Amino acid sequence: MAIVYDGPVLPDDLTTFVRQVPVPANYVLNSVLPDVHVQTNRIDVGQITRTNRTARFRAYDGALHVGQRDVSQVSTVTLPPLSDSLAQGELERLKLEFARTGGTNQAAFVEAIYNDAEQLTRNVQNRMELARGDILSDGKFTMLSANGEPVLEADWGVPAGNFVTTATLWSTTATADPISDINTWVTYYIGLNGYAPGGMWISRQTLNNLLVNQNIRTAAGTVLGASLMVTRTTLDATLDQRGLPPILGVYDSQVDVDGTATRILPQNKVIFVPPAGQPFGRTVWGVSATALELVNAAVTDLSFEDAAGIVGVVEKVGPPYREFTFVDAVGMPVLDNPRGLMVATVA
After folding, report:
1. Rounded distance between C-alpha atoms, residue 289 and residue 295, angstroms
2. 2-46+84-157+277-335 CATH pick, 3.30.70, 3.15.30, 3.90.930, 3.40.1000
3. Is the peptide bond prior to 319 cis by the omega test (within 30 degrees of 0)?
4. Using CA atoms, how far apart are residues 234 and 221, in angstroms rounded to an integer?
5. Over its length of 347 residues, how does the chain's per-residue pLDDT go in tens digits?
6. Beta strands in the chain (DSSP E)
7. In terms of DSSP bridges, do strands 199-202 and 269-273 run parallel, antiparallel, or are they unpaired?
8. What does residue 177 show for φ and ψ, rounded to 5 degrees?
9. What residues contact residue 111 under an 8 Å CB cut-off, 6+ apart?
10. CA atoms within 13 A on the CB side of 89
């Protein structure tokens, strides 16, 4: 396998192109776990267990109180590779035509490479968004083999008490009491972290359950006057009046995993995350082996400082000789503050 450095699309140009492919508008979890680029393929994850202790008053000339330190733990994590490729039947057809016509269809040849690179970049973006949803759902990043066996699992250590289940599922809209549930969970969250969650992510099914819930309809009537119908605006006002976390987003995105439509966030869970400004997590992109090849190649301009992140190349394998477009990266989502995540099963 060799990178093609003299083809119609150079590695520098293809890498610049794939890095400019926009993330689909419905993929918004990088607002929760923002992208960070590092110049390595390993990261140190430091987790500090912070407790809201206080100082102590003392009498003049009295003994000084000796406080306790927060507990910290540093783990080294190797970033897994994330890549995709297309063996180009269409590209091969165009190459034959290119040879037959003496090089008069260069534009079509180039367009085929860029089209495949864009599709492959979307595939990488899809997989990383699925990984973000994975750790926001259970506090773990799990990578499966082709036959479904776990080959890597990073457990970020979310406390067991942060995974809760309502006594009455919210789908039982006549008797469920979401306001009481959320208040109980927020009280626990504050006791653990010293601050309330910044908000929650829910599914459309959960939103619909909340809008028709009898207890919420009653509560909304005490806030904005009696109404036969609770709207999203009314629901937001009801939560705000009671000092409860806002709904940050209604998230129902799905991706295709080996032919199966797969939700990125579970439909029956509510995801609580910290407020802005509090540490939580990130999506770390590192330096792939392909990027290092480009850095070390004298015919490319990619510097080590710019190596982190997704890269795109055309590669040749053989015999029999074939060329295909390859998009490569290393990275994974990371929870730096696992206590800031709370996951509630509500349906």
Report:
1. 10
2. 3.15.30
3. yes
4. 9
5. 689 898 889 999 999 999 999 999 999 999 999 999 999 988 877 544 444 455 655 566 666 645 554 433 446 788 999 999 987 655 555 566 666 666 556 677 788 889 999 999 999 999 999 999 999 999 999 887 666 666 778 899 999 999 999 999 999 999 999 999 999 999 999 999 999 999 999 999 999 999 999 999 988 876 555 566 689 999 999 999 999 999 999 999 999 988 899 999 999 999 999 999 999 999 999 999 999 999 999 899 999 999 999 999 999 877 777 778 999 999 999 999 999 999 999 99
6. 2-3, 35-37, 42-49, 71-78, 81-87, 140-144, 150-155, 163-165, 199-202, 247-250, 254-257, 260-263, 269-273, 281-285, 311-317, 322-335, 342-345
7. antiparallel
8. -125, 80
9. none
10. 0
Q: Which of 277, 270, 271, 285 is nearest to 328 (CA)?
A: 285
Whole-number Å distance between alpha carbons of 23 and 124 = 10
What are 49's two structure tokens? 């267990």
What does the domain layout of the chain look like in residue ranges?
2-46+84-157+277-335, 160-250
Cα 210 to Cα 173, 205, 258: the distances in Å are 8, 9, 33
CA distance 143 to 157: 17
Q: Is 292 exposed, middle or buried (0-12, 13-18, 19+ CB in 10 A)?
A: middle
* DSSP output for 118-160: HHHHHHHHHHHHHHHHHHHHHSEEEEE-TTS-EEEEEE----G
Q: Are 220 and 227 in contact (CB under 8 A)?
A: yes
Fill in the amino acid letter for 170.
W
Which two tokens mark 297? 């190649």
Contacts within 8 Å (CB) and 24+ apart, 234-239: 235/207, 235/210, 235/211, 238/179, 239/179, 239/182
